[in-house]
């Protein structure tokens, strides 16, 4: 079978076979189960003050203590203030986390937007806004101009005379606020003096004709009211913009390079089995033959009544590139045993792409079990812009990577676009931070794979971030032909069952297949449960290879072309350490790791990636939580993440304040102890920030469990139990090692006396909660101990972290008072009444 992908290069391998007829070189490599190890680090919970300017950077200009300096022309009427909004600038003598806590304690308002580095947009009653303005941590207060509600392109149009009336009938979108839990339909604030309440549907009914509601608070329609200023003044409205026009990202209209034929591909034991990949695209020829019975769902997400692929056959081609099995003639996809969850976005009547809310699109795929979501389409224009769609995918990726809230990880990929070779040609949603943005290199013919296709869109995006992230094969890719497709003239070759397309549309499913295989490896071979999407991204970049001259990172290729072999089985025998179960919650927090490199002369590479909190579409910079990567070699020389020269790490530069991917790459590592540190340099968001770390190098790579008690996992159902009172205890045991443990015992002791024990085993990276019953016998301070593997039967990475001691105070027998609801919250600061259900027990 011929694969559409070229994700590995020639190198040391078990078998190399050349097919002289087809000029295909098959490179086989073995997967070892001893490559990946857990990176076990040490937290530092120190905090320091944020080094930030007292200003807020927005899409219309910069606010400082003295006012707004515009960066673009705005008509005077659009500088009018929104009465329900206020922009505050936080003092840099206080960290933003503490400022947020002060504001959140006030009744009648909410924080709506973070405008880096020091701005917060508040919405609420006038009384509540006045209270916030008087907080000591606030150094300046400004009105919020109506212009911030408008998309930049719409601002340009409204500079023209009589532009409002000229926009009548234009297809547009109105969107409500984006809250902590996603899109919002209504606003509702009240305090002792006033109330703000509105449903955005009421606004839309007055503003639009021919209305479509795509999601909660998300509407599309024909503009029927020329008074756009009045619409922008409504408290439920956060964004007014033109309806986005989306297009597939294949290269139909561009000439192909005609050079010598060459194709390579790899095979491994990985095949995508156990993985569900979501593809959002035009439509699907479900019974083509190359999907077998692996289509778990084929959904019409735009409600046109069809999921067929009647125009270009784009969705079928893309889906087969990810996971087709080659049944119809031998062109197999990258992960031919993966399952497909398809979302049809093309209107069969017009051939036009339509996009529902990406929030709902991604949520439905995740709910169906998909953990990889690939998208070979993008906006027709808006180059470099951080759009509502960009924010949606950032929010969903961040949400599903929160392992501490039950998130199982989600990898989201978008095609960079085909508007290269000019810079700043990446279109939304590929401009999002947390997605893997994929450009394309040659797949076949002379120059493959080290030729970047001319049409591949280039970065950077508007705030200076590196895009694309990686390249994958996108030039001249053979894949499935939809039998009902009637407009395949853009193909450069075809047969009954297959055709050849070029574009980042073709590169992205290649990278998606590789991502699914990385996830499969992590779950099935490395035995890591629910890997973060950020870890998959970090591993793709860990194995990526520079194309052409040594110059990564750059805006043509990002971090290089995907090489799955380098990610999973480094050819020089290095090991790979990973960590995707760490969290930094405040500015100054850090975690450090040490590695003993025992062989010199080969590469040492560290990749830090995190699914950052979604940014504001009003902001001109998108990084919310800024983490820094620092690597120190055995001689004390420190390398900063993304401080590069000639494609390798150097020294003497500055920390990166824009990107949520940071890399350190050393050509020739020296023997000795290396230290890798992840530092929370500026925490602008409202939540703790999980991150993923992938490190490659020669060193001690033993496969061992490491069993620990989780410090904050202890619970007791009675805060101060009495002598003789039955009490329930809980503890949490975690295996921070890289393989499943053998069975071991956990022992409960009180003051050195064994009470009971439980037997268990744990997979690498997993946790389990144990519940215990204890009846205190002695009043006073009792030392409760949970001891793992008391007799040292298990060989672990560390043997000194197997015990947790907690002091529990026990009272003499008497009358115990308990209540199911121990705390009641006052609803009114002047007067309130409430009741408690009190339970009294004689514990004597």
SSE layout and pairing:
Layout: E1 2-3, E2 15-19, E3 24-28, E4 36-38, E5 42-44, E6 56-57, E7 61-64, E8 67-70, E9 85-90, H1 96-104, E10 109-115, E11 119-124, H2 126-133, E12 138-142, H3 152-157, H4 163-166, E13 171-175, E14 178-179, E15 182-183, E16 186-190, E17 195-199, H5 200-207, E18 208-215, E19 218-223, H6 228-232, E20 239-242, E21 246-248, E22 263-267, E23 276-281, E24 295-300, H7 314-323, E25 331-332, E26 339-344, H8 358-367, E27 372-375, E28 377-379, H9 388-400, E29 411-415, E30 436-442, E31 470-475, E32 477-480, E33 493-494, E34 498-501, H10 504-524, H11 533-543, H12 564-568, E35 575-584, E36 590-597, E37 604-609, E38 625-632, E39 638-640, E40 644-645, E41 648-649, E42 661-666, E43 672-683, E44 689-697, E45 707-709, E46 715-716, E47 727-735, E48 744-750, E49 753-760, E50 767-774, E51 780-788, E52 803-810, E53 815-818, E54 839-842
Parallel strand pairs: 1-25, 3-22, 4-35, 23-26, 23-27, 24-26, 27-29, 29-30, 30-31
Antiparallel strand pairs: 2-3, 5-36, 6-7, 7-8, 9-11, 9-12, 10-11, 13-19, 13-20, 14-15, 16-17, 18-19, 21-28, 32-34, 33-34, 35-44, 36-43, 37-42, 37-44, 38-39, 38-43, 40-41, 45-47, 46-47, 47-50, 48-49, 48-51, 51-52, 53-54
Describe the structure.
A hairpin with a 2-residue loop joins strand 40 and strand 41. It is globular, with a radius of gyration of 29 Å. By secondary structure, the protein is mostly beta strands. 13% of the residues lie in helices and 33% in strands. Helix 10 packs across helix 11. The protein has twelve helices and 54 strands.
């Amino acid at each position: 079978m011929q694969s559409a992908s070229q994700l590995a290069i020639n190198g040391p391998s078990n078998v190399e076979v050349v097919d002289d007829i087809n000029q295909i070189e098959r490179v086989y490599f073995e997967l070892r189960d001893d490559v990946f190890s857990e990176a076990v680090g040490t937290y530092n919970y120190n905090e320091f003050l944020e080094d930030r300017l007292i200003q807020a950077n927005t899409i219309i200009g910069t606010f400082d203590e003295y006012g707004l300096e515009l960066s673009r022309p705005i008509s005077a009427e659009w500088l009018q203030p929104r009465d329900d909004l206020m922009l505050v600038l936080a003092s840099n003598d206080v960290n933003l986390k503490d400022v947020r806590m002060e504001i959140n304690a006030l009744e009648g308002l909410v924080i709506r937007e973070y405008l880096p580095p020091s701005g917060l947009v508040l919405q609420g009653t006038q009384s509540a806004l006045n209270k916030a303005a008087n907080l000591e941590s606030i150094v300046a207060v400004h009105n919020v101009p109506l212009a911030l509600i408008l998309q930049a392109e719409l601002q340009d149009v409204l500079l023209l005379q009589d532009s409002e009336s000229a926009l009548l009938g234009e297809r547009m979108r109105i969107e409500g606020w984006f809250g902590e839990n996603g899109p919002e339909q209504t606003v509702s604030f009240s305090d002792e003096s006033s109330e703000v309440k509105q449903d955005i549907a009421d606004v839309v009914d007055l503003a639009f004709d021919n209305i479509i509601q795509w999601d909660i608070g998300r509407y599309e329609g024909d503009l029927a009211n020329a008074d756009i200023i009045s619409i922008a003044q409504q408290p439920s409205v956060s964004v007014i913009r033109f309806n986005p026009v989306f297009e597939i990202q294949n290269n139909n209209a561009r000439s192909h390079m005609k050079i010598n034929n060459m194709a390579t591909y790899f095979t491994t034991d990985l095949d995508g089995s156990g993985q569900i990949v979501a593809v959002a695209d035009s439509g699907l020829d479900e019974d083509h033959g190359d999907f077998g019975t692996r289509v778990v769902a084929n959904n019409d997400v735009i409600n046109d009544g069809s999921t067929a692929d009647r125009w270009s056959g784009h969705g079928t081609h893309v889906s087969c590139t990810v996971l087709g099995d080659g049944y119809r003639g031998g062109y197999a996809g990258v992960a031919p045993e993966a399952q497909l969850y398809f979302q049809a976005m093309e209107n069969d009547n017009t051939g036009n792409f339509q996009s529902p809310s990406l929030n709902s699109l991604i949520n439905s795929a995740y709910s169906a079990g998909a953990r990889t979501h690939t998208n070979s389409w993008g906006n027709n224009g808006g180059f470099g812009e951080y759009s509502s769609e960009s924010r949606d995918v950032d929010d969903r990726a961040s949400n599903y990577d929160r392992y501490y809230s039950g998130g199982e990880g989600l990898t989201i990929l978008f095609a960079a676009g085909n508007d290269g070779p000019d810079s700043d040609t990446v279109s939304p949603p590929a401009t999002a931070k947390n997605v893997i943005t994929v450009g394309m290199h040659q797949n076949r013919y002379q120059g493959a794979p080290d030729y970047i296709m001319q049409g591949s869109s280039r970065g950077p995006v508007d705030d200076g971030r590196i895009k694309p992230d990686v390249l994958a094969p996108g030039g001249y890719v053979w894949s499935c032909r939809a039998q009902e497709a009637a407009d395949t003239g853009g193909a450069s070759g075809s047969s009954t069952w297959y055709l050849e397309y070029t574009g980042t549309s073709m590169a992205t499913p290649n990278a998606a297949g590789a991502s699914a295989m990385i996830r499969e490896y992590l779950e099935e071979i490395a035995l890591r449960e629910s890997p973060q999407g950020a870890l998959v991204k970090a591993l793709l970049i860990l194995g990526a290879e520079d194309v052409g001259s040594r110059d990564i990172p750059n805006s043509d290729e990002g971090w290089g072309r995907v090489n799955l072999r380098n990610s999973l089985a480094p050819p020089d025998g290095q090991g790979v350490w990973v960590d995707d179960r760490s969290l930094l919650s405040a500015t100054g927090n850090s975690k450090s790791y040490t590695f003993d490199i025992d062989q010199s002369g080969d590469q040492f590479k560290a990749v830090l990636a995190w699914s950052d909190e979604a940014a504001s579409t009003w902001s001109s910079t998108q990084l919310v939580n800024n983490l820094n990567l620092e690597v120190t070699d055995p001689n004390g020389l420190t390398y900063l993440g993304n401080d590069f020269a000639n494609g390798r790490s150097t020294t003497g530069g500055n920390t990166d304040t824009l990107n949520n991917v940071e890399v350190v790459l050393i050509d020739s590592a020296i023997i000795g102890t290396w230290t890798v540190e992840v530092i929370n340099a500026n925490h602008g968001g409202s939540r703790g920030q999980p991150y993923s770390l992938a490190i490659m190098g020669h060193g001690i790579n033993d496969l061992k469990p490491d069993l620990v008690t989780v410090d904050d996992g202890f619970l007791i159902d009675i805060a101060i139990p009495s002598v003789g009172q039955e009490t329930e205890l809980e503890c949490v045991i975690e295996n921070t090692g890289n393989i499943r443990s053998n069975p071991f015992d956990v022992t409960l002791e009180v003051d050195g006396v064994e009470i009971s024990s439980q037997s268990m085993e744990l997979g690498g990276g997993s946790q389990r909660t144990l519940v215990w019953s204890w009846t205190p016998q002695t009043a006073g301070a009792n030392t409760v101990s949970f001891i793992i593997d008391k007799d040292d039967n298990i060989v672990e990475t560390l043997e000194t972290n197997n015990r947790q001691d907690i002091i529990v105070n026990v009272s003499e027998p008497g009358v115990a008072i308990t209540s199911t609801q121990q705390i009641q919250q006052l609803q009114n600061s002047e007067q309130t009444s409430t009741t408690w259900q009190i339970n009294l027990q004689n514990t004597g």
